[in-house]
Amino acid sequence: MDAASQAGPGEPVVALPSVADSRLARQLAFILEIDKLKSVLRRSHLADGSRAENDAEHSWHLAMMAVLLGEYAEEEVDTGRVLRMLLVHDLVEIYAGDTFVYDTTAIAEQEARERAAADRLFPQLPRDQAVQLRSLWEEFEARRTPDARFARALDRLQPLILNYATGGGSWLAHGVRAEDVLAHQRVVSEGSQALWEYITHLVGDAVRRGYLAA
Amino acid sequence: MDAASQAGPGEPVVALPSVADSRLARQLAFILEIDKLKSVLRRSHLADGSRAENDAEHSWHLAMMAVLLGEYAEEEVDTGRVLRMLLVHDLVEIYAGDTFVYDTTAIAEQEARERAAADRLFPQLPRDQAVQLRSLWEEFEARRTPDARFARALDRLQPLILNYATGGGSWLAHGVRAEDVLAHQRVVSEGSQALWEYITHLVGDAVRRGYLAA
After folding, report:
1. Does A27 touch chain B (CB under 8 A)?
2. Chain B residues within an 8 Å CB radius of A14
């Protein structure tokens, strides 16, 4: 296979110039590599319904939610850590792709695919930063700390808001039902009781308005 | 003008359901409003050259750079504050639009447009958070603190990396020259001497390769 056919969609047109400082060179190459997160599409659509959202935009939106909604965290959280976790939490999807939460077959294989992606992605960084970012990702996935539980709650709430704002969006397109949504959203209560209550209210309202099947 | 013709591109299809807690309602309405940042297009293209980057992706990318490049900050910075500043710094462009840095006419009017946008945007939040976010934005704009100088350095470096990675991208499209780039990038040295040195190296290399006019 020649170089041109190896270059999939999302590859930079050219690599960055080499620099004497190999640590800085690795960091900048990683920063360029993660540009690909902007091309990983999600099922959620923008609130105006114009197009699918991508993982980079989603991650920014979650980070803004962490800045604004910290007061509703169930336990005390370190907002700086929550921000870092949210910025990093979807990076593995650069290689593993986005998995639709209601696709049970894909979900079963998701963990293995994402671990393989993490093994490929994070070692591109200098060792200390590879360890730091992988550890934030593992913490987010394990949901055993207050920071991770709150971060996960925001990650669940955000597409719900977009689905509602688009008048049912990917719920109607994929035949998702209220009970599926509530089962999937249930973990939000571990991170924020107040946001979980808001979600049950929003889901009830979505059913009444026909944005979501009962 | 009826409601339908007032709704510009980017308006949510439907508003979020009302909730009894008016503070939470304002916060969530703001979170939905800033979804529009995903539709503010910049001149820079993604590294694979596929399309223009938007402000939300750009903000996420800068935040990742702050996580990874903090060690190069000229003065000690509070990464948590730098992150918040970067997440927020382009929000005013939801109403003011993106201003191309080499468009001198637009740049002259930019400050007034962005102040008007800030007056419209931030008061949509509860008062304490409106003050907090506006103050972060003002600090970024004024560039008088170490956090702001470093944040600004990253904001300058990021499109440079994308322009190089696309083999000249918006430089060639808009007839930008090396001296313009270096004049615009000069402020990076206030935030990070190491990153400024990298920039001069990258610009020299871009000229040699024909990505940028001498």
Report:
1. yes
2. 164-167, 209, 211
Residue A12: inside a domain: no
Chosen from B19, B34, B61 to mutate, greatest number of chain A CBs within 10 A: B61
Backbone phi, then psi, for B213, in 5-degree steps? -75, 140
**Interface contact A63-B68, CB threshold 8 A:** no
DSSP state of B105: H
Q: How many domains does chain B have?
A: 1
Q: Supply the range of the domain harboring residue B189.
A: 21-209
- Taking the CA atoms of B199, A80, A147 and B15 in sequence, report the sign of the dihedral they define: negative
Please give the distance of CA A170 from its chain centroid, rounded to a whole number: 16
Query: Would you say residue A135 lies in a domain?
Result: yes
Give contacts of B 82-141 with A, CB under 8 A.
Answer: 83-84, 87-88, 125, 129, 133
Eight-class DSSP state of A213: B
How far the first Cα of chain A sits from its last, in Å, is: 51
Q: What is the pLDDT along chain A (214 residues), one digit of tens a residue?
A: 333 333 344 799 999 998 888 999 999 999 999 999 999 999 999 999 999 999 999 999 999 999 999 999 999 999 999 999 999 999 999 999 887 777 777 777 888 999 999 999 999 999 999 999 999 999 999 999 999 999 999 999 999 999 999 999 889 988 999 999 999 999 999 999 999 999 999 999 999 999 999 9
Max CA-CA distance within chain A? Answer: 62
Q: Would A78 be classed as within a structural domain?
A: yes
Is residue B157, in this structure, part of any structural domain at all?
A: yes
Would an 8 Å CB–CB cutoff place A64 in contact with chain B? yes
CA B121/CA B129 separation, integer angstroms = 12
CATH assignment of the domain containing B190 = 1.10.3210.10
Long-range pairs for A141-144: beta carbons < 8 A, 24 or more residues apart = A141/A114, A143/A187, A143/A190
* CB-based contact B165 A30, cutoff 8 Å: no
* Complex ipTM > 0.95: no
Q: Which of B11, B14, B44 to mutate to test the interface with A (most CBs of A within 10 A)?
A: B14
Distance of CA B104 to the CA centre of its chain: 18
Q: Which of A196, A86, A186, A204 is nearest to A137 (CA)?
A: A86
With beta carbons under 8 A apart, name residues in chain B contacting A168: none
Collect all residues of chain A within an 8 Å Cβ-Cβ radius of residue B62: none
